[in-house]
Design brief:
Blueprint (H helix, E strand, L loop, with lengths): L2 H7 L25 E8 L10 H10 L2 E8 L3 H10 L6 E4 L4 H8 L21 H7 L8 E4 L5 E6 H7 L7 H13 L11 E3 L13 H8 L6 E4 L2 E4 L4 H15 L16 H5 L3 E7 L1 H13 L8 E4 L17 E6 L8 H14 L5 H6 L6 E4 L2 E4 L5 H10 L13 E2 L4 H18 L13 H22 L5 H30 L1
Parallel strand pairs: 1-2, 1-3, 6-9, 13-14
Antiparallel strand pairs: 3-11, 4-11, 5-9, 5-10, 7-8, 12-13
């Protein structure tokens, strides 16, 4: 049954105070509450007003008043800390990530442990157990995760260059090398000059395991995703033989000039420019960048934009296997502070409201807005209403911050502007679905090492810096190995021991 059918068939909850029956697991019955307070970030210029059609619809579905404290995204982290230290705490807080601050607060008892409760709420019982496990803290669930695309890694290629040279989209890492070499040496733009290169790589702002092009290639080589399991033990990916092989491959690309020469300093904010300007032909990034590049090409060449961009997914590694790199699959949580929600009865009431806010009825409101006002439907695709008030359009982007989607996306996908753009969008979604079956999840994601919480950023820098130095030829393999040994002796071995101890307890 599609969302449209479910919407038509579902009856909205009656507005008013919420009183929910006790869950099947027994325990205290829910407590009646007239209002639920929520703190959430907004990413647009202005926060939604207290009186808007989206809020009215959500309150109708939830059956309770929603008192939302909107906080600018730029100051949300500080506001979170101030709020937890104060007396004015909401029933629900959007927590933007599993950072050390959240971990410490959760382990200190600041938030409800939801592990044994979510299964009693049909819209909160996730269909993505791997993601819920990754979002947990040592197996305990302290917030309802906000689902995001699990599979995003892709290879984006200049289609006109492929066509010019009679090449196909790469399917393997060896294909990637051959295409990059051809883009560098075989004059793909036909100007008679050797002024192009294969792969565009920017200076990456994050450390090891932050989904850089290097990290993606290393996963393709079978090194794991941040961590890997070897002989029954969890170990960082950079301690594996496959990782060293992958870094040698990356160095080969650089040594042969198949990558932009300024890869160590090139600003990632300008990542699109060499692709659009005909200097570089391949980007390894999230598949949505293909859509961005297509839109930019359409702006500059509206009559012939279809020729520039093509995309494929994760590549088969040298072992003949597809090791697809997923994201964590979530972007923060909706957590419930114990300082505000003091009893199990109140907890069940709040969870009941969140269950309704993750229902098929609420999903389109959170993700698309109001049918007829912010969007119309063409089949099961949402078409934006161009003349909708800007404040209402902005409000949709803000309310989407409350979307959990833990049972799947609860809204309508957007209809693209042209048949070709729709075809390419559908292709990206199909790639995403196909690659998901080969996802290499981080096996250590659920576990929080105390040493890593305090030293992780510094430790990871040791290896990420050494990787770039090795690729650049500033150190040899012995120097790279020495850096990994320094990571171990500086606290890394302790991190490994703590992660494996936590994993053994979970088993």
């Amino acid at each position: 049954m599609n969302n449209r059918t479910r919407l038509a068939a579902a009856a909205l909850a009656t507005a008013g105070a919420v009183t929910l029956a006790g869950c099947s697991g027994g325990g205290a019955e829910s407590e009646s509450l007239d209002s639920i307070s929520i703190m959430a970030p907004y990413l647009v210029t202005n926060a939604p007003s207290d009186d808007n059609a989206i809020l009215d619809e959500l309150e109708n579905i939830a059956g309770v008043d929603l008192d939302i404290n909107w906080v600018p995204n730029s100051s949300y982290g500080d506001k979170t800390n101030i709020t937890l230290a104060g007396d004015d705490i909401p029933h629900v807080m959007v927590i933007q990530g599993k950072d050390p601050g959240f971990v410490k607060n959760a382990q200190a008892g600041a938030f409800w442990d939801l592990t044994d409760y979510l299964g009693d709420y049909p819209n909160l019982k996730t269909t993505f157990p791997e993601v819920q496990e990754a979002s947990s803290i040592n197996g305990k669930v302290y917030g309802i995760f906000r689902a995001r695309d699990v599979m995003r890694a892709a290879v984006i290629v200049r289609k006109d260059w492929l066509d010019k040279l009679g090449l196909a989209l790469p399917k393997t890492t060896e294909d990637l090398y051959e295409v990059a070499k051809a883009f560098t040496e075989n004059d793909p733009d036909g100007n008679g000059q050797k002024d192009t290169y294969g792969i565009i790589i920017p200076k990456w702002p994050g450390p090891i395991g932050s989904n850089s092009p290097y990290d993606v290639i290393e996963t393709w080589y079978g090194a794991g995703n941040r961590w890997a399991e070897r002989d029954g033990e969890l170990t960082p990916s950079f301690t594996t033989d496959e990782w060293l092989e992958a870094v040698d491959f990356e160095k080969k690309l650089v040594d042969e000039g198949l990558v932009n020469g300024d890869y160590a300093t090139f600003d990632s904010a300008n990542w699109n420019e060499p692709f659009l300007n005909g200097k570089g032909g391949i980007i390894i990034d999230v598949h949505s960048r293909a859509g961005v590049l297509m839109s930019l090409a359409k702006e500059s060449d509206p009559d012939d934009f279809e020729k520039y961009v093509d995309v494929t997914g994760n590549l088969v590694g040298p072992d003949g296997e597809l090791h697809a790199q997923p994201t964590t699959g979530y972007s923060g949580f909706l957590a419930i502070p114990k300082a505000k929600v003091r009893t199990e009865a109140q907890l069940k009431t709040v969870l009941g409201v969140l269950d309704k806010l993750n229902s098929p009825e609420a999903g389109p409101v959170l993700n698309n807005g109001i049918e007829g006002e912010t969007y119309t439907l063409d089949g099961d695709l949402a078409v934006p209403v161009d003349d909708a008030p800007q404040a209402l359009k902005d409000a949709v982007l803000s309310y989407s911050q409350l979307g959990m989607n833990v049972t799947g996306f609860q809204g309508y996908l957007p209809k693209q502007a042209s048949a070709y753009e729709q075809e390419m969008y559908d292709k990206r979604k199909a790639i995403e679905e196909s690659d998901l079956a080969s996802a290499e999840y981080d096996p250590a994601a659920p576990y929080v090492s105390e040493t890593y919480v305090s030293q992780g950023a510094q430790l990871d820098t040791i290896v990420s810096d050494a990787r770039i130095q090795y690729i650049a030829g500033q150190i040899d393999q012995a120097g790279l190995t020495a850096a990994i040994d320094r990571w171990r002796s500086s606290g890394g071995d302790k991190v490994i021991a703590e992660i494996n101890e936590l994993a053994s307890k979970a088993d």
